[in-house]
Amino acid sequence: MILSRLMQGKDDYAKRIQEQINQYKNVDNMHAALSDMHEYWKRKHLVPVWQKVCESTNVYDFYARNFIRGMEETGSRTMASLGSGDGRLEIEVAKRMKTLGAKDFVLQCVELSEHQTGRGDKHAKEAGVSDVVQQVLGDFNSWKSPVPLAGVMANHALHHVADLETMFSNAREVLGLNGKFITIDVIGRNGHMRWPETLDIVESIWNFLPMDKRYHNIFKKTCKDYLNHDCSTQGFEGIRAQDILPVMMQNFEFEYFFAYGGLTEAFINRGYGVNFDDKKEEDKAFVDFLHKLNELLIDLGHIKPTVMFACASPQRTRELRVFKKRTPEFCVRDTSA
Questions:
Q1: Of 45, 125, 264, 337, which residue is the least packed, with the fewest Cβ within 10 Å?
Q2: Position 6 pLDDT exceeds 70
Q3: What percent of the chain has pLDDT over 70?
Q4: Per-residue pLDDT tens for 91-146?
Q5: Residues 163, 167: Cα–Cα separation, whole Å
Q6: Are strands 106-111 and 133-137 parallel, antiparallel or unpaired?
Q7: What are the two backbone dihedrals, phi and then psi, of residue 211, each rounded to the nearest 5 degrees?
């Protein structure tokens, strides 16, 4: 019922599919637009925590180690990446798996756009991993592996999924009991909007910013008032972001879970991030302040986090590791409020 309301029939779904394909038709690197200030924030405040919680040294290591655990616990040597884009990240994951000693495995890259699968083939051959990184053209809203899988990864792809129920159900079925579903994704409000309680705080801080910090570098305009833009009006961007965590909880038992964000990224996202200079102490101090405020508000339960690092299985295979008291249940935002 949720899906039918969102898509309003096959014509609208087909239209969004084409918009999604067109969006990345001429984009060679779809993850290259974050600012230096965003990297400063991530490196200083996020990486030390998620490395401790997730027991990994970096993003590639996070996916690689959990894939290897999945292979060990299922006996399968096949993994899949949903919404893999141009496959650059998957190539690095495969290389890391080889470094860690994994052999005779296949990582299937499931991607909607033939433009991206073509790039993926090219990149895999150039990296010398075309024997283990394979491209699969398909709509991962409904794609289902014909063989059992040791693991499924979805790197910033779930917020493009309209039919989360089918996608998670299909993944759970092919993962058996011990396979791993591994993801880093957005779990905030649909369309990447701020929830009202977060928006109140963002707007209060926004009013103190000089106008040069309010320039939106994608829309090419200065925003006197904070632009709480709904990205889901075209394609599938953030189409059901707020449902990702609840639906995943219905299908899986979490093993690693780290959630953060809500306030800080409103100021240092792709739109505004380049307005802040990571070489200026006052700009870094402002971002440090935002992060500390964000953390306090999450811990108090006043706002909910908007990004998660997670690894889960159809059945629990180890004790859940979280940051502070931020279990999946604590981090779900009541959408009826």
A1: 337
A2: no
A3: 91
A4: 999 999 999 999 999 999 999 989 999 999 999 999 999 999 999 999 988 899 99
A5: 6
A6: parallel
A7: -65, -30
Amino acid identity of residue 121, one-letter, is D
Residue 5 has pLDDT above 50, yes or no: no
Alpha helices in the chain (DSSP H): 2-7, 10-23, 36-41, 47-54, 59-74, 88-99, 114-127, 164-174, 196-206, 241-251, 265-268, 281-299, 328-331
Q: Which long-range contacts (CB under 8 A, 24 or more apart) does 54-60 make?
A: 54/256, 54/258, 54/309, 54/311, 54/321, 55/256, 55/321, 59/89, 59/155, 59/184, 60/89, 60/92, 60/93, 60/95, 60/96
Asked if 74 and 164 count as a contact pair (C-beta separation under 8 A), the reply is no
End-to-end CA distance of the chain: 21
DSSP 179: -
To the nearest 10 degrees (0 to 180), the angle between helices 241-251 and 164-174 is 30
Query: pTM score, two decimals?
Result: 0.90
* Helical packing angle, 196-206 and 281-299, nearest 10°: 150
